[in-house]
């Protein structure tokens, strides 16, 4: 073992004693960030080396790798301790976030080495989202750069409150004090502009080790702490400090009929048996009966502990609910002002339904057109119709049900969220809730004495939404019209919403961009829902090309009321019919965003009813649909 000392001897002699010594040490999570080639990975490698965290086999491998792919000639390349990807070693850059654990006598640390390239901004945000502090590197030869400003803004945005400006490579500028002072002065303006209040500056040489783990005699003019001393003493603040008890429920533990507990990690505050709590968002109130762990019951639980709580009364509580202090509960709302960092190569589609994950809560969310995008270089607010990869903006987020939340400034657990694409399951954005929109609390549903069940009973039928989807020219409107005629002959109360007719009135303000088409379907879905509430059988004939939007409308309806009818026609067949001449215009470039030509159609994967118009007439299709409805 390299650099054997008393602590490592204790590990070898009595691992139990070693673990006991370190069990109660405070943990500091920090990131290294900055521009490309400022020496982040080298600095971390040097820190690991100087704190004697490298074993013999690691050191031997490091020396061999340094000779083979290193950038320091025959000398040890400390960056290779962190840059593990082949592409990182080949290019000499950091691409993904690399995490390393180490410990000293005073603290335990988890460090995240984040990329410097602008194209990997999402990686940097990921690493910073769990950090308590940031080591922001600046190359002494280059000074404050664009990425210095970008990473300062991002660190402040995700809640990192303690930052140290590590002016690196001081050995390459002859340890010039005046140059260091000039860089500190430049960064002071950056800190003021981005709202950073707690920051320090340390001159270092990551490669040579100056002011990394010990103070350097080469910079006698500097009388502050070395980097390790700063890391060991910087205050660890938590957004949960000072808040009442909160625990998002992760799992309902029901091993037998005699036990029902609610498992989760305490996000804030503390709790003990007998404390009054409120279950959110329902608002039901009860008290804590027991705090259960694998090692036995506890007399109290505090933030950071994972426990199972049992309640004094049998109340409805499930995954996604939040158990909170009855006297100081968080809020619940369904409309928010939020800051988004866009992660996906496909831009934000305003109005499209995404999964939102907030703590243990999952729901469907739609993002409105951004209020503005932030130019992180100048902090200017810019108009933007959408958000592209790595863009940061502020927008309204609408959710299909109430979510329990707190502002991100108050709670990272109940204020930080991610958005997930429903089709690809890719994480497309990270977000921070700023506040609930006032209208969310000013608008309440009005109770109506004549219920939707009464409307249906008066009409003597079961409400339904028959959603016809397919390419233009597939025959949706023709078949829907024939189905409605047959339903009318049976004495059913119906209404047909046709795509062209709706665009003459309700949706005349919408075009045919992807965003407008999503809004077109959303509005039609809302109208269809109101008509179903009135007890009607609603027929709709819309191309509705995107699965996510059809699923959005299905989610609006009562279970079983939405019937997706796929009028399956090949593009060749639809184009051959072309009764309106639309395909010809699209081929000639006269119609943009036309489905099947320059805009995609996502066919239903499991429609409730499928009609093949290549093998049956419109009349036969209508008969088949009526027969299928009878069977349902």
Question: Would you mind describing this structure in some detail?
Answer:
The chain is of the alpha/beta class. 30% of the residues lie in helices and 27% in strands. A seven-stranded antiparallel sheet has the order 7-15-11-12-14-9-8, with no helix packed on it. Strands 2-3-1-4-5-6 form a six-stranded mixed sheet, sandwiched between helices. It has a six-stranded antiparallel barrel with strand order 16-21-18-17-22-23. Strand 2 (98-103) and strand 3 form a beta hairpin.
CATH topology of the largest domain: Rossmann fold
Approximately how much beta-strand content do the residues carry?
Answer: 25-35%
Main pleated sheet: 7 strands, antiparallel
Total beta strands:
28
Q: How many domain regions?
A: 4
Low-confidence stretches: 83-95
N-to-C CA distance:
72 Å
CATH superfamily of the largest domain: P-loop containing nucleotide triphosphate hydrolases
Tell me, briefly, the overall form: globular
The secondary-structure class comes to alpha/beta
Keywords:
632 residues, Elongation Factor Tu (Ef-tu), domain 3, six-stranded mixed sheet, Rossmann fold, alpha/beta, 30% helix
